[in-house]
Amino acid sequence: MDLRGGPEIKAQKSRQGVRVKSIIAIAAGGGFSLALRADGTVWSWGVNDKGLATYDRRVRKDAWYWYQANWSARPMLHLANRRCAPRAGVSSDIKAYTNLDEVALAVDGVSLGSRRASNRVVTWNAVTLPPGAHHLMATGGGMSDSIEWMVAAPTP
Questions:
Q1: C-alpha to C-alpha distance for 60 and 80, rounded to whole angstroms
Q2: What is the DSSP letter of 22?
Q3: Domain ranges of the chain
Q4: pLDDT per residue over 89-129, tens digit each?
Q5: How far apart are CA 143 and CA 42, in angstroms?
Q6: For the chain, which terminal residue's Cβ has fewer other Cβ atoms within 10 angstroms, N or C?
């Protein structure tokens, strides 16, 4: 983006680097940084891993499924928090993103009942899970999604 009003953005790596004399401002963040050059162009470098997929684009994050539940007409169901392993503690909220009206949940084959979706999210609050491996399966509208959660023993 040209901060003087033009539409140009430069987001490329230079093998020779940017001449320090041409930089008039720098903004540094935890994952990436920006440099404003005197000609109005902005150079960026680093990793912005806050998006809807992992940096390598191989794993879609939960936010991607939340948007899909809100924007897609195709029925969908996704149990959230599958990348958080092992889980700490014995009590957790279990969430599913869906555009279905109602979803049922079973943990280790035991039904926790059905819940109606609210704003495309279904939540089972404060589900107590003992330490160890657990199989979660959500079903609804002829669809299903399942994940494995590992719950760590509480620290003394």
A1: 11
A2: G
A3: 1-48, 62-151
A4: 778 899 999 999 999 999 999 999 999 999 999 999 999 99
A5: 46
A6: C
